[in-house]
Amino acid sequence: MPAFFNVFKKKVLTKLPKDPAILLSIIVIWFFLLLFILFPLSKIFILTFEKSGHFTFSNILEILGKRNHLQAFWNSLLLATLVGLSGTILGFFFAFTSVRANLSKGWSKFLDGTIILPLISPPFTTAIAMIFSFGRRGLITYNLLGINTFNVYGLHSVLFAETITFFPIAYLTLKGVLAGIDPTVEDMAFSLGSSRGRVFRTITLPLAIPGLANSFLLLFAASLADFATPLILAGSRFPVLPTEAFLQITGLFDIRGGAVLSFILLVPAFSVFVLQRYWVSRKYYVTITGKAGAQTQIKSVTSRTGKIFLTVCILVSVSILYFYILLFYASIVKAFGANYQITLKHYTVVFTEGLKAIKDTLFIATIGMLLGGVYGVVVGYLVSKKTFISRSAMEIISMINYSLPGTIVGIAYLIAFNNPPIMITGTAIIIIACYVFRYGATGIRTTVAILQQIDPSIEEASFSLGANATTTFKRITIPLILPGLFSGLGIVFIRSMTAISATIFLVSINWTLITVRILDKMTELELGVAAAFSTLVVVIVFIVIIFINLFLRLFRGPGAIDMSNILGG
Amino acid sequence: MLNVKKSSVLFLMTLIFSLVLVWFVGEMNIPGQAAEELNAYSIWPENWARPMFEEFEKATGIHVNFIRFSSGEALARIIAEKNNPQVDVLFGGPVETHSAGIKEGVFEPYKPPTYDVLEGRFKDANGYWVGIADDPLVFMSNAGFLKEKNLNPPSSWYDLLDPAYKDMIQMADARTSGTAVTRIFTILQVFDRDEDKAFEYMKKLRANVQAYTKSGGGGTIPVGLGQAGAGIFFIVDALKTQQEGYDVVVSFPKEGIGTSTEAIALLKGAKNPELGKKLIDWASSPAMQNFFAKYKINFIPAHPDVEIEPSLAEVVKNANIFPIDSVWAGENRKRIVDEWVEKVLP
Amino acid sequence: MEAIGIHLNNIHKTFLHRVKGEVKAVNNVNLNIEHAKLVTLLGPSGCGKTTTLRMVAGFEQPDKGTIFLGEENVTNLLANKRNIGFVFQNYALFPHLSIYENVAYGLKVQGISPQEEKKRVNEILAMVGLTGYEAQFPHQISGGEQQRVALARAIVIRPKVLLLDEPLSNLDAKLRVHTRSEIRRLQQSLNMTSIYVTHDQEEAMAISDRIAIMNKGKIIQVGSAEELYFQPNSEFVAKFIGRINSLPAEVQEADDSFILVKIFSHTYKISTTLDGIKPQQKMNVFIRPEFVQLSKQAEENELKGIITEKVFLGEKVEFTVDVYGHTLNITSYNAVESAKYLLNQEVGVCLAEKELKIFTEKGD
Ligand SMILES: Nc1ncnc2c1ncn2[C@@H]1O[C@H](COP(=O)(O)OP(=O)(O)O)[C@@H](O)[C@H]1O
Ligand SMILES: [Mg+2]
Question: Which SS3 state, helix, strand or coil, does residue A293 take?
């Protein structure tokens, strides 16, 4: 017994933080993590594996026994794989062009600017634009090409729309990877007699492989989780899991079925999470660089190839821009496709009927941002600067809701918080909690990243110059982390403005969201109003981004993290 | 020294974080209902529900908070919230939805003053719901499409099987839409409730379906725009499309087509039952139904004293329309929809 | 392989720099390197050494001028056709390839047989002392070893010329001295015409046959270490190679064969001719620290000064002397003699007249 106690003391007690404030913070955070992450998730497990008090697989078998659902499972995997591949290829193409094709400043700004658009857009944007463009009476298919047999519903459309929507993630990931490859390494291969093609094949590509794998997994997860695009574009012949789970619950009022479907979705999603965390992230090559050499005039593409690449990129960017212009245009004409008279009536609807949704959304996003920010900083600080017994568990669990498809999180919340002891369906708190514990994770990641960047010697230097602890914290630490924190907050806000997959289950008569109104308007075929709402969201998000960038310019320091980098992941 | 400072800041932040969170929980759980407000889920689209509720507020001073759902969604929500109802009234929607709800025990019986005046198919025997309008299904086709393919407006269920319609028909998805459920029961009825034959027909029809939409009217604009050639909709949606200026043709099958009662019901455990009842009184009376014409809502009024709008009367004049037995439909709804999802949808 | 010469003729290169605007990185460079010789480009950071080297390698295209490798004009030849060995400052090892694969890369490109490849890689690894490291990856070995891999990789393809861009700057001082003689040994035994870039004059003097001093994109002077030290053509070269004192002077008299200048209180005769020199003209006169001598008592024709600093460095002693408000550096290699002089002592300062230099070129 004493032996056991000694082990206990050594293993547990000595690792508990001595500082009571820290200890309390840890306990409080754990309480919330249990309540808002593990508890809801456990409900999904219970519903999936329990039947009249017994453990069983029959629920899963029953759901998978339905042709439609089994089909949805395979479709989801197929779609995610295809989007992972095509998005990675397109993203790599863009990244390669941007990093290696000697772009002028103007062009790279243009590419970066347009590519960011899909990342900050409300859901359905691409889907709406697709229907306007490629439907039977679409601007492109019908008016331009005179085709009226093209079917806009199905795998091809979802694949296209999701690729356009998600490839910026690949772009941002791979741009970092490619920019991280020391160009002298390519020069060297070149000088050893390799042709351009061979340098690309034997040097550039192999060095980018971990990045490619990472980007594939990110896109795979994004597509797997995407609810909005397939809901509009997949058509009934191509069911996928998130929409099936949604329809199972909202249409067939089969909550258990929805839970089981989301569990089935959880399996691949979680595998990707694990793969990404424990495998790919460890595979990055350590590029050996001493002192940085002279800037290199990159030789990996000839100027002619560079021009071709740039042209292709510009074409893709222009089509993204076109989608947004189309969206705006649709919001100011009477009835797109039939009556192109300019009108403000859709905006009138937005600012009368839709006012409540706008107010609710802004309120929820603001509160979510503030709470999410505090939560992010606290957890980020704890996991990166403190050692305590449940540290890595805390780090992983705090990432769960962020990594899982929103559909799962939404359904879990719906099930968990609809009954005593915690009955918060129908309140704003359930939506806010969902955002805080889902998107607050970006806050955690930013904080961790910033704290890693801050060399402890900076703080020490301040001490050695005679500053005391408070002054150091105020003058050195806070200014260093503030800009990064601020962009982290911005991301939480933007995500809260544009999210739907989780919150669609959580809106209520008291609290509704713009994104859900967009979906309503789309199902009611008020596409003009849907477009107007979407335009509004894009505008609000843009204002937020401009605001953040202004702020960052004021406070640029080592703590400043590029906004786009956080948007990507 | 640094650590003490930092950790107390950290703890303070954690504290603020949890206090705000807790404050919210407290704040949100107290239902802040004003005296003269009631909550409703509307299955009618916002465009129609909103003017009705505004007129109601004018007439009674009672404000209606509402949110619009497809019938399946609305029912799902009501069932999910059974222990903690968020609304008082389920407003509109084909009666099969309400019948299914009775089975789940989510409604409170209430017979408004108009109850006795209403025709039998416009009220539930126990008063769980009452009808506020009648809404027959129709075929709606794009005129340009018909001309292009050299077709007459479809006048039989079998016309829709013509390969000319391949990939050109849009209709609603039974998982979310009451229109779809009414349509499926109509087809069952057309085949004398012979499920094998009816499903056989639906599977054949599937080949011509371009898309199943989430809401009942989801296909109307695509048909109006010519993105789709034809579809099966409630008359109210079809005529709205026509009124908006789309060149569409409304027709009826000679074998007959079903009509559904649009109903209203009070929820069990409603937080404002008295206000809810007032809304039901008003909606089931001419007081509301007289506004249909004014707001160009092409429902056929349920109350016998309300004049049917002349142009609407003209459309349905010679049509073979039959009511659907709501009890039968309600009892079989889930089974039939499941079967449809399994057999027809993929 | 037969060694060949390298010839740069009127090379120009201008960059558009984001901050600085147009930068003339290389401005009319002419350089001829005989076969099997090692020439060092020496100059301060940013003077255009790397750019010059990269143009020889073909990584950069000159705006103007021609580059010849032997008889062949390679100005427009791509880097992968020039058969050049290049060693980067940061080594540029392929991080995803093992040491063996790194070294074998160039051979694989040439398409030689696997046996031959193996033989040559092993040979070269033995030469640089890395036998047994074949399966390691770059991040698993030390900086000095990485440096040798980079060297092995560059020379295994038997290049016509070898270019090295500050190859030792990432090594510690001791390893640097050792490795530079290794490089010199390899270069001489393999007879490779080489250009070596550094900003370290000692390294340059130790390793080169000839040194080209560069500044602001131009080559200021080319010569052996001795030539540059004893006959610098400009103030810049004189200051860059070794140390030199600069003293204000006024011309008294100028002739075909000499100039008389007055430095503080005394007049010196310098045997040189300069065009357009007029009496009363002010100029600077230069002298290296070791050509200044101290004496206990200022003689008739000597300057007077006060010792402000004395640093004992073993084989030599360095003094700083204040002469009429001017600081003069003096180096003495006579320890016994130097012991006589103390801090703050008043001393006589003797400038060796024939070592006084006047430069018409500033060199920058
Ligand atoms: N790719 C480039 N783009 C812009 N300026 C450059 C580039 N490469 C070099 N320079 C500039 O040219 C000058 C010479 O650079 P470099 O040849 O690298 O000098 P060194 O190697 O002698 O230190 C510097 O001012 C440098 O900033
Ligand atoms: Mg350099």
Answer: coil
CATH number of residue C75's parent domain: 3.40.50.300
Chain segment C243-261, per-residue pLDDT in tens:
999 999 999 888 878 888 9
Per-residue pLDDT at B34: 47
* Residue A5 identity (one-letter amino acid): F
| Chains C and B touch, using 3 or more CB pairs below 8 Å | no
Q: Is A536 on the interface with B (CB under 8 A)?
A: no
Answer with the one of C186, C214, C240 that is the final residue of a domain. C240
CA of C235 to the centre of ligand 2 (A): 23
Residue pair A523/B70 in contact by the 8 Å Cβ criterion: yes
- For a ligand 1 pocket test, name from C49, C50, C51 the mutation site with the most ligand atoms within 8 angstroms of its C-beta: C51
Q: Which CATH superfamily is domain B37-134+260-321 in?
A: Periplasmic binding protein-like II (3.40.190.10)
Which of C216, C240, C264 lies at the terminal end of a domain, its last residue?
C240
CA proximity to C108, closest of C92, C122, C121: C121
Answer yes or no: do A153 and B47 touch at CB < 8 A.
no
Report the distance separating Cα C61 and Cα A297, nearest Å. 9
Exposed, middle or buried, B273 (CB in 10 Å: 0-12/13-18/19+)?
middle
Centroid of ligand 1 to alpha carbon of A288 (angstroms):
21
If you classify domain B137-259+330-343 with CATH, what class do you get?
A: alpha beta
User: Is C364 part of a structural domain of the chain?
Assistant: no
Domain that holds residue C191: 6-240
Complex ipTM value: 0.79
Q: How far is A154 from chain B (nearest CA, A)?
A: 10
Q: What is the pLDDT of residues A151-198, one digit of tens each?
A: 778 899 899 999 998 998 899 888 888 887 888 888 888 888 888 888
According to the model, what pLDDT value does residue A462 have? 64
The answer to whether B34 faces chain A, any CB pair under 8 Å, is no
pLDDT the model gives residue A4: 56
Neighbour tally for B114: CB within 10 Å: 25
Q: What is the model's pLDDT at position A568?
A: 47
- Spans in chain A with pLDDT lower than 50: 1, 287-295, 557-561, 568-569
Instruction: Report chain B residues whose CB lies below 8 A from the CB of A423.
Output: 29, 84
A392 in contact with C, Cβ within 8 Å: no
Q: Is A428 on the interface with B (CB under 8 A)?
A: yes
- The reply to whether C363 falls in a domain is no
How many domains does the structure of chain C reveal? Answer: 2
Between CA A481 and CA A372 the distance in angstroms is 16
Low-confidence residues of chain B: pLDDT under 70: 1-11, 13, 17-18, 20-35
Nearest CB among C94, C138, C169 relative to A291 is that of: C169
pTM for the full predicted model: 0.81
Note whether A524 contacts B83, CB cutoff 8 Å: no
User: What is the A155 CA–ligand 2 centroid distance (Å)?
Assistant: 54
Cα C49 to ligand 2 centre (Å): 6
CA distance A234 to chain C (A): 42
Chains with ≥3 CB–CB distances under 8 Å to B: A
What are all long-range contacts of B44-51, with beta carbons under 8 Å and residues at least 24 apart? B44/B68, B44/B91, B44/B92, B44/B93, B44/B262, B45/A524, B45/B217, B46/A353, B46/A520, B46/A524, B47/A524, B47/A526, B48/B295, B48/B297, B49/B91, B49/B92, B50/A353, B51/B291, B51/B295
The alpha-carbon gap from B205 to the nearest alpha carbon of chain A, in Å, equals 14
Can you list the domains of chain A with their CATH numbers? 17-51+358-569 (1.10.3720.10), 63-286+302-339 (1.10.3720.10)
C49 lines ligand 1 (CB under 6 A): yes
pLDDT recorded at residue A569: 42
Closest chain C C-alpha to A560 CA, distance in angstroms = 21
